[in-house]
Amino acid sequence: MRLIVPLRGVIQGRGGLFVGSLIPCCLFYFLQLYLKGRRPPPSDPTELPRTSSRSNLFSRGNSIGRVRVSSRALPVAKPSDSPYYIGLERVKTDPYDRITNTDGIIQLGLAESTLCFDLLQRWMSENLMDSIMQSDAGEFDISNIAMYKPFEGLLELRVAFADFMSRIMGGKVSFDPSNMVITAGGTPAIEVLAFCLADHGNAFLIPTPYYPGFERDIKFRTGVELIPVHCRSSDNFTVTVSALEQAFNQARKRGSKVSGILFSNPSNPVGNILSRETLHDILKFAQEKNIHVISDEIFADSVYGDKEFVSMAEVAYSEEFDKSRVHIIYALSKDLSIPGFRAGVIYSFHEDVVNAAKKLMRFTSVSVPVRRILISLLSDVRFIEEYMTAHRQRIRDKHIRFVEGLKQLGIPCAVSGGGLYCWVDMSSLLTSYSEKGELELFEKLLTVAKINATPGTACYCIEPGWFRCCFTALADEDIPVIMDRIRQLC
Amino acid sequence: MRLIVPLRGVIQGRGGLFVGSLIPCCLFYFLQLYLKGRRPPPSDPTELPRTSSRSNLFSRGNSIGRVRVSSRALPVAKPSDSPYYIGLERVKTDPYDRITNTDGIIQLGLAESTLCFDLLQRWMSENLMDSIMQSDAGEFDISNIAMYKPFEGLLELRVAFADFMSRIMGGKVSFDPSNMVITAGGTPAIEVLAFCLADHGNAFLIPTPYYPGFERDIKFRTGVELIPVHCRSSDNFTVTVSALEQAFNQARKRGSKVSGILFSNPSNPVGNILSRETLHDILKFAQEKNIHVISDEIFADSVYGDKEFVSMAEVAYSEEFDKSRVHIIYALSKDLSIPGFRAGVIYSFHEDVVNAAKKLMRFTSVSVPVRRILISLLSDVRFIEEYMTAHRQRIRDKHIRFVEGLKQLGIPCAVSGGGLYCWVDMSSLLTSYSEKGELELFEKLLTVAKINATPGTACYCIEPGWFRCCFTALADEDIPVIMDRIRQLC
Fold first, then answer.
1. Which residue windows does the record flag with biased composition (Polar residues) (chains A, B) (predicted)?
2. In what order do the strands lie in the sheet containing A225-229?
3. Range list for CATH 3.40.640.10 in chain B
């Protein structure tokens, strides 16, 4: 009990009585002054609970006694001030269409892909009905799709997901369906993981720039903080152990408890692929600090460069590591281009996480008809192989076209190997090299060029002038239109 | 600043220096002793973070440094000790089948209905494909189902839901689609409402007996407490304002902040329908206390008695009330018997709740293919009318058969008018009139009679011997089997 130093003075006869009284008194009165300073002002009378008098009870049309929502819901209800969401909303008001609205805003802000819609359309036309309606007995039985099924996903679906994930990762790693929980998309997968790995007020380290949606995914309900680990263009925005170490130590000094490291691989928004060595270093760092590692791998198959994608699962299977700290997020929204189906996965080596996540699936389970479609789709190996080949080839082609268009304007991109976007260095177009300058350019892109690209500020990038541009929902003929529009700002 | 009384003594020259020092000193030292007493014992060495030494880093097969999940996930990960979930799990190990497993456990624990599966099967066979594949242009377009759509539900679906809800409520109340948020089932609807209406540690009053799932729905993540308002068989378990008042006052004395009242109507598990007067009284009470009202109306169309169902929305529309405190939960799992589709609704008169809930739908949105099916299904007025008529008639018939069977065994049921279950008074079968006796009977029902019925304890009923028995997934020929099995225990 080190704090009671003054009393020791009394015991030791060193005039401690005075000090032993003075210190507590000072603390006591300062505490009162501090608390008084923090006390909220008296409530607005309009917010007082109603009395039971009839005059109040039946008063209408004024705000007396208007009931309030929870304090945690209020910030959620408010419109977002992130340029990421502002841009997405602006597109809705005037969306570009190459036939019906050629002057509308072109969407480069949303990571979705239409590159292989011809293949998906064909598969769905041929198989959708049978996949929902199939049953062991051959004939359609409504009870197969209408009744309650285990919230966490049928075993069949988990097996199909595990096979699919292994396939897109080149068969280098196999996934155990019993470590897997099926979620209604990647978004609830990350939220549920955050809930399971960190308590309210704890934090995850996260390399910047990062996907702007993580803010909502994690902060809205779980109360977990995100501590940025700043990465720089000089390293092509790749995280280093020394940067992690520094952020970890700073957090600890501030009294934050760091529960894990969260990152996406391929990185979103940069598009770079983490090397096996970097993954190894991250896991080694996490082991040293005894924290979790959350690897968001939803772009695992959307790779187009020469660099090999390595899953954190593969590194975790290395003999030396305690795998229980490794958790992987996957979803079909990007690689299979079906975000509307809301299908994702938590893959965790920690038994408690799997058990808790299974129970939490009551809040976010995939409907049974969609499960049936997914089982058929993911199990159709011939189709999946055809899709994967086309998907990678088409991303590569579109990436080349898009980057080449920018290059001709003198606008460079970060080196990337995956993702549905590129990370564009528009700093040459800034009027001032600052966040303010970047946001001015964002606004000019929206209003003058009529393009919605996500500014680095929304991704917590510390270098101004970078923009995420998603290119996989563009037709080839859109690209020259975009370049012409950007040229106006050069 | 009332607390600094001692210093006033100094100013007023009443020897306050001594008192003004003594009190803070006492508080200070007592606080230290208290904190020391509460401090956790030194951590187990097995839980210390690993050091960076290689010997620790690469150790495997022991528990040194095993990473821990969050403290809030641990209770979620553990198996439940509620007889409700225990019963459901036991059925899975040996489910009754009238052809292949006649000696299995008969499920009376799950509120699902197969009564109108013939109608649903016909509708799905004829319309499912078209409903998913339809588009404005006539031809199937994959982008209609595969791409991102607003998480909170398409306007078309909200309009269809609003019409459907109004229809099952006899057209006495109309629902505004802009007050509506579509959720992936009733379960996330109640969770999201709890998050929006109450902060962590706040409470809802809830009349007992209540649906056992509310515990998980509300407590797992939102941290909202449920304060039981005990109802008795003498009132047919109907809540009264005096019971609410008493529970509210007791909660306040204990320092709990009550944020709302949550109840289901028709009541789950009793099946009674709240009268217009009772709803009026509840809303008046809520207005007096300035708290929210959450009315779970997912059994609104599953009514079979003579008593009219009245929605809380209808009462809220009465001139005298501030509607913003009223929130309604609805879902298609019960009335339309499609829990596998995971489709529910939050209907709220509070703008902040609607806005916050829309944003939270990123975690629990309905997939687009299922939205398309639901739009077609709910808009098919001829089918819906046919379904409603058959559904009500068949529940009525099944209820009569089931209750009659029990009556012949001398086992009475509570008076009920809705729901997929009845509330059975098996107190005559208890060996002791206590919770222990009830749980013994639950176990005997499971192991001897091989029937899973949910005991009142799981529903927080204070009178022993009541069981919820769901009868709408039973075939007529199952009922005599059940009665024969129960007879063994009489």
1. 49-59
2. A180-183, A344-348, A326-331, A292-296, A258-264, A203-207, A225-229
3. 139-380
CB-based contact B299:B332 (threshold 8 Å): no
* A123, closest residue in chain B (CA to CA): B142
Give the residue numbers of B marked as catalytic: 211, 296, 298, 334
Task: Name the residue facing B352 among A74, A121, A184 (closest C-beta).
Answer: A74
Joined together, the tokens standing for residue B39 give 């401090």
- Which of the residues A85, A168, A301, A334 is marked catalytic? A334
Torsion of CA B299, B305, B307, B313, to 10 degrees: 10
Annotation says A296 is catalytic:
yes
Residues of chain B contacting A69 with CB distance shorter than 8 Å = 196-197, 350, 352-353, 356
Q: In the CATH hierarchy, which top-level class contains the domain A139-382?
A: alpha beta
- The answer to whether the Cβ–Cβ distance between B292 and A67 falls below 8 Å is yes
> What stretch(es) of chain A map to CATH 3.40.640.10?
139-382
Using CA coordinates, name the residue in chain B closest to A356.
Answer: B77
Number of Cβ within a 10 Å radius of residue B254? 9
Dig out the tokens for A416 from the structure.
């990337």
Averaged over successive runs of 10 residues, the pLDDT of chain B (490 residues) comes to: 40 48 55 48 34 33 68 94 96 95 97 96 93 78 87 86 94 95 96 97 97 94 96 95 97 96 97 96 96 97 93 90 95 95 96 96 93 96 97 97 97 96 97 97 98 98 98 97 95
Task: Give chain A's end-to-end CA distance (angstroms, integer).
Answer: 66
Start and end residues for every CATH 3.90.1150.10 domain found in chain A:
83-117+384-487
In angstroms, the separation between the Cα of residue B427 and the nearest Cα of chain A is 31
On the 0-12 / 13-18 / 19+ scale of CB atoms within 10 A, B93 is exposed
Instruction: Give A85's contacts in chain B (Cβ within 8 Å).
Output: none
As a whole number of angstroms, the distance between CA B267 and CA B260 comes to 17
Distance from CA of B136 to the nearest CA of A (A): 15
Question: What are the helix (H) ranges across A223-319?
Answer: 241-253, 276-289, 312-316
The ipTM value here is 0.85
Q: B337 near A144, Cβ under 8 Å?
A: no
> What whole-number distance in Å separates Cα of residue B385 and Cα of residue B364?
29
Q: Whole-angstrom Cα distance, residue A412 to residue A145?
A: 50
**What is the architecture, at CATH level 2, of domain B139-380?**
3-Layer(aba) Sandwich (3.40)
Q: What angle do CA B288, B289, B293 make, to 5 degrees?
A: 95
Residue of A nearest to B258 (CA): A70
Q: Which two tokens stand for residue A301?
A: 């198959």
What is residue A418's DSSP assignment?
Answer: B
Q: What is d(CA A64, CA A49) in angstroms, rounded to the nearest whole number?
A: 8
In angstroms, rounded to a whole number, what is the distance separating the alpha carbons of residues A278 and A237? 13
Residues of A in contact with B198 (CB under 8 A): 70
Q: Mark yes or no for CB contact A147/B114 under 8 Å.
A: yes
CATH number for the domain whose boundaries are B83-117+384-487: 3.90.1150.10
Q: Is A298 a catalytic residue?
A: yes
d(CA B470, CA A316): 47
State phi, psi for A159 to the nearest 5 degrees.
-65, -45
Residues A383 and A173 sit within 8 Å (Cβ to Cβ): no
Q: What angle do CA A410, A411, A412 make, to 5 degrees?
A: 115
Nearest one of B131, B137, B142, B138 to A124, comparing CA atoms: B142
Cis previous bond, B6, omega within 30: no
pLDDT tens for residues B80-137?
Answer: 999 999 999 999 999 999 999 999 999 999 999 999 999 999 999 999 988 998 766 6
For residue A217, list chain B residues with Cβ-Cβ distance below 8 A: 362
Q: Distance from B92 to chain A by nearest Cα, in Å?
A: 11
Verify whether residue A335 is a known catalytic residue.
no
Distance CA A270, CA A394 (A): 19
